[in-house]
Specification:
The protein is of the alpha/beta class and about 300 residues long. It is about 45% helix and about 10% strand. Strands 1-7-6-5-4-3-2 form a seven-stranded parallel sheet. The longest helix is centred in the C-terminal third of the chain and has 18 residues. The protein starts with 13 loop residues before the first strand and ends with a helix.
Length: about 300
């Protein structure tokens, strides 16, 4: 693999919605609705698209379904915004194969996610992410989520990975903003931080974050982009006023299954994205009413 220097890699920043994976009862990806969603999100001003994040139900799809989701997103984006495709596996070889396949399809970057069945030591965690970054010529965003992951990335591992020429970003989905500041202090310019919906994006932007990758941005893209621009302009009072309103979406979603919430929100907005993949279930009528109310409030 070419030893691209991080200086020549594309720059990722701003709002990257975690796309849903629209799927019918027979397991076919609804490419038409996914393409339309991508188009509309780009028209709303988002800065990139992330298929196969947690909202994309990557853990519930087979390899062929994942490839269709990524290809459809890349085709819909038509180079207008970067597409950072999620790669996740319990096996290093499988993760590397996915990353290579998505680069070949035209992905602008890889979001690397570690699934672990048995616990792993730091050296093994580091080796997984390093192997993915070694296998591609595009930027890698390392993803850390202590709530979901059996083996998380320690600050030492993050610092060592940040020295890799293609690992330029981290998306941290802990709810610990102090951890983000520790990463920034420790790694400096070697790695840029994306917030998750579990954080308060405006607060992460204030301490030096470059944007956020999150499921709720799928259903409130315009407002998310507005929040990013207010943060960029250092209009912190206005940003926090908007952030307080948008935070109600996160509060509502924290009560239910995330994919079910985003899919219900999109269905309310006219996108026939289908139900979450079983054994997950769609929201009940009452739960859907909560999502509807919070969306109405956002305008």
């Amino acid at each position: 693999m070419a030893d691209s220097s991080s200086d020549s890699l594309p720059d990722f920043h701003g709002v990257f919605p975690y796309l849903v994976s629209p799927i019918d009862a027979d397991g076919h990806i609804r490419t038409g609705v996914l393409g339309r969603l991508c188009d509309d999100l780009i028209a709303s001003g988002v800065h990139g698209l992330t298929p196969l994040g947690s909202t994309g139900e990557f853990a519930y799809l087979n390899q062929a379904q994942r490839a269709v989701v990524v290809r459809t997103t890349i085709e819909a984006a038509r180079g207008r915004v970067p597409v950072v495709a999620g790669v996740a596996s319990t096996s290093t070889a499988d993760a590397v194969a996915q990353a290579k396949a998505y680069q070949k399809l035209g992905a602008s970057g890889i979001l690397a996610i570690l699934e672990a069945y048995f616990p792993l030591a730091d050296a093994q965690v580091e080796s997984y992410f390093r192997s993915i970054a070694d296998a591609v010529d595009i930027p890698v965003v390392i993803y850390t989520n202590p709530q979901f992951q059996r083996s998380d990335l320690s600050l030492d591992v993050i610092a060592r990975l940040a020295a890799h020429p293609r690992i330029g970003y981290i998306k941290d989905a802990s709810t610990n903003t102090g951890r983000l500041l520790s990463i920034m202090n420790r790694c400096g310019d070697a790695i840029q931080v994306f917030s998750a919906s579990a954080h308060i994006p405006a607060a992460v932007m204030l301490i030096g974050g470059v944007g956020w990758m999150a499921g709720p941005a799928c259903i409130i893209p315009r407002q998310s982009v507005e929040l990013y621009h207010l943060c960029q302009a250092a209009r912190w009072d206005d940003a926090m006023k908007l952030q307080r309103r948008l935070w109600r979406v996160n509060e509502a979603f924290a009560r239910f299954n995330l994919a079910a919430c985003i899919k219900a929100g999109l269905a309310i907005q006219g996108y026939d994205v289908g139900d979450p993949v079983p054994p997950q279930v769609a929201l009940t009528a009452d739960q859907r009413g909560v999502v509807e109310a919070v969306l109405r409030e956002q305008g």
